[in-house]
Design goal:
The structure is a single chain. The chain has 231 residues and is of the alpha+beta class. The chain has two domains: 15-58 and 171-226, no CATH class; 65-160, no CATH class. It contains five helices and seven strands. A five-stranded antiparallel sheet has the order 1-7-6-5-2, covered by helices on one side. A two-stranded antiparallel ribbon has the order 3-4. Helix 1 crosses helix 3 (162-171). It is elongated, with a radius of gyration of 27 Å. The relative contact order is 0.16. This is Peptidase.
Length: 231
């Protein structure tokens, strides 16, 4: 079907759809989805910039700060393996995140250390094994360290900076299903705003050629930035 447009109407909406009720409906969707996600659009835009610069042209967001550390007495019979250590810590400190081995420099995960024979003062000795697990919550991290057979667990709490917290919100780190579903609605609002914004383009903002040129320029720039780095 060929599309014809009114001289003063919407450029990307067929003439027969350009009725007051339809245009009002488009504007309401555009407005209310904008209000629904207004604050989160700002937050996710800011955190998106920080994440985009996490490796190239890096923007520092500050290191996590140790808030507290403690040796907590425990019955060794309750901590027979690393899984038991994770369950104990989650229950003891009301942690909702999944326990994972902490990341070392270089990004490698290491759940257990020690357990090897090493030379010390001229003799081969067995190094004690240590289990270490980290619970990454949205605003910080709790790390537990335990030597099998010991009667105490080392616990360390670290707090993220505000910018670090915003990045965790963007990634959904340490958050549950409810937050993930909520962000899905924010993403849906952004999609709705982009579609209704496209349909509401009028001659007040320029012709279709200008609109198509802006979209094409954006896509060409995106492809030019990605193409050299593809396999």
């Amino acid at each position: 079907m060929a599309l014809r447009f009114n001289q003063s109407g919407l450029l990307f909406v067929p003439v027969r759809w350009q009725r007051v009720a339809f245009v009002r409906w488009l504007r309401r969707i555009h407005a209310w989805t904008g209000f629904w996600g207004a604050v989160l659009f700002f937050v996710l835009g800011l955190s998106g910039v920080l994440l985009n610069h996490r490796s190239i042209m890096k923007l520092e967001t500050g290191e996590a700060v140790e808030v507290s550390a403690m040796e907590i007495a425990v019955d060794p019979a309750r901590l027979l393996d690393r899984d038991a250590l994770g369950r104990w810590a989650a229950k003891e400190f009301d942690l909702t995140a999944e326990p994972r081995p902490p990341r070392r420099k270089g990004g490698a995960e290491e759940a257990a250390r020690g357990g090897e024979r090493k030379s010390f003062l001229g003799r081969e000795r067995q190094e004690a094994e240590k289990w270490e697990l980290a619970f990454s919550q949205a605003n910080g991290k709790v790390t537990v360290e335990y030597t099998p057979g010991s009667r105490s667990v080392s616990v360390r709490q670290e707090a993220d900076t505000l910018l670090g917290f915003l990045k965790n919100l963007h990634k959904g780190s340490g958050l549950g299903v409810l937050w993930v579903l909520f962000l899905d609605t924010i993403a849906g609002a952004l999609v709705a705003m982009s579609l209704t914004g496209f349909l509401l383009w009028t001659r007040l903002h320029g012709g279709r050629l200008l609109a198509g040129g802006i979209v094409t320029a954006s896509l060409v720039l995106a492809v030019a930035a990605v193409w050299p780095h593809l396999l």
